[in-house]
Amino acid sequence: MSAMPQARWSSLADARVPRYTSYPTAPHFTGQVGATQVSAWLGALDPAAPVSVYLHVPFCRQLCLYCGCNTAIVSRHRPIGAFVDDLLAEIDLVASLLPGRLPVGHVHFGGGTPSIVTPREFADIRRRLDERFALGADAEIAIEIDPRGLSDVMVSALARGGVNRASLGVQDFDADVQKAIHREQSPAMVASTVARLRAAGIGAINFDLIYGLPRQTVASIERTVDLAAAMRPDRVALFGYAHVPWMKPHQKTLERYGLPDGEERWAMAEAASARLVAQGYERIGLDHFALPGDGMARAARAGGLRRNFQGYTTDAAETLLGFGPSAISALPQGYAQAITDTAAWAKAVRAGELPVARGRAIDAEDRLRRAVIERLMCDLAVDLGAVARAHHRDPACAFGAERARLAALEADGVIAIKGDRIRVHEAARPLVRGVAAVFDAYLKPDAARHAVAV
Predict the structure, then answer these.
(1) How confident is the model at residue 447 (pLDDT cuts 50, 70, 90)?
(2) How many CA atoms lie within 13 A of 161 on its CB side?
(3) Where are the domains of the chain?
(4) How far apart are CA 52 and CA 105, in angstroms?
(5) Which architecture does CATH list for 25-323?
(6) How much is the pLDDT for 381?
(7) Whole-prediction pTM value?
(8) Residues 6 or more apart in contact with residue 235 via CB below 8 angstroms
(9) Yes or no: is domain 1-16+363-440 CATH 3.40.50.1100?
(10) Is residue 1 predicted with pLDDT exceeding 60?
């Protein structure tokens, strides 16, 4: 078992801090941002600047007990068909507020289980996107897939729709773990899905794995990594299970099996990471891995990695348009999150109203801190002076209040400081969220709403 290098790091590993897929983070969005303001933001977009699109499909066939996503379990297709009609209407509504047919470089279908729609419905969504936006010939079109129940007909529909990247929810291959989390799928099933996607021309494959689940051990997660790596996905995301039963009550069911403690979670994360590196993957940011020739690995080496609501990305667009319940849009002026409840979201769309529930306008200070946090999360290093100058701030005056906390982290062996440059030590990589939190002006010390750092 790979023990935590320093005992004093345990408090940092157990600290509840955001994942920093945005800044300010979603808990700090408020109802002060509404449809009227977001409409103005949309109309002010640069018609020549590329944007990205995220579509949230909030349905699954069964509940996975570890899940923290906004989704509902359905046994009939009727709610899904109605949702697709409303999603098309929302695309039309947002497009009518834009200054033109904006260029799109990235499209991501997430959920829930976006592959739950029928082939015809998927074709309808793709056609509407083509009508309302200018998708580039080299646009990345990605979809999250549950390997259970993916038909050959749907695989063909995805390929015809231009999908060129698929992300498969693997989580864990151990049979006991799968039973506990209520997600049973064999390695053979996943391998077959990968083979069928590649045969159809969908060659870029991502796997999601999770550590910190009940019944997991270091040995079992190493076996999962070996099985996954044998299928040679281009990218692997190794997420720590976020146990937040106060937000997702169904997760409390997992407590009967016992959950790994902080030391065990650390050991699992580091053992799985070491195994992936041994299998030829490059370690990227906090929790991603990619084969050396993959675009994410190249971006990381070049310092061009980005982070948004889908996690690590090569997407450089400043604007992300979110569609569907709970989807978050990132705009130059701020963030806007859609109504979470699907029925309420649909009601707003049918009334011709932007279904905005809350958001956050951002100012120059937010942008400065966001840039620092993003570079730390992506590069495990940041030049505070360079960031300050890029944001027209005096490096000598910026971040004065943070210096004492940074010095404490240096004394604990988490970071190295040389002038204005901060670097997270490799052994402390799992603690990078805690380092980024130093620059979070909104985070409260007792922020129980977040998951633990490791």
Answers:
(1) low
(2) 28
(3) 1-16+363-440, 25-323
(4) 6
(5) Alpha-Beta Horseshoe (3.80)
(6) 98
(7) 0.94
(8) 204, 205, 206, 207, 288, 289, 290, 291, 294, 296
(9) no
(10) no
| Tens digits of residue pLDDT in 55-82 | 999 999 999 999 988 899 999 999 999 9
What is the C-alpha separation between 53 and 371, in angstroms, rounded?
Answer: 22
Burial class of residue 419 (count of CB atoms within 10 Å of its CB; 0-12, 13-18, 19+): exposed
| Per-residue model confidence as pLDDT tens digits over 288-343 | 999 999 999 999 999 999 999 989 999 999 999 999 999 999 999 999 999 999 99
Mind listing the pLDDT tens digit for each residue in 139-172?
999 999 999 989 999 999 999 999 999 999 999 9
Length of the chain: 454
Q: Is the pLDDT of residue 6 over 80?
A: no
The predicted model gives 381-387 an average pLDDT of 97
Distance of CA 415 to the CA centre of its chain: 25
Cα separation of 6 and 413, whole Å? 9
In the block, residue with structure tokens 């994410």: 296
Q: Which amino acid is at 217?
A: T
Tokens 């289980």 correspond to 113
139 and 180 in contact (C-beta within 8 Å)? no
Would you state the pLDDT for residue 449? 65
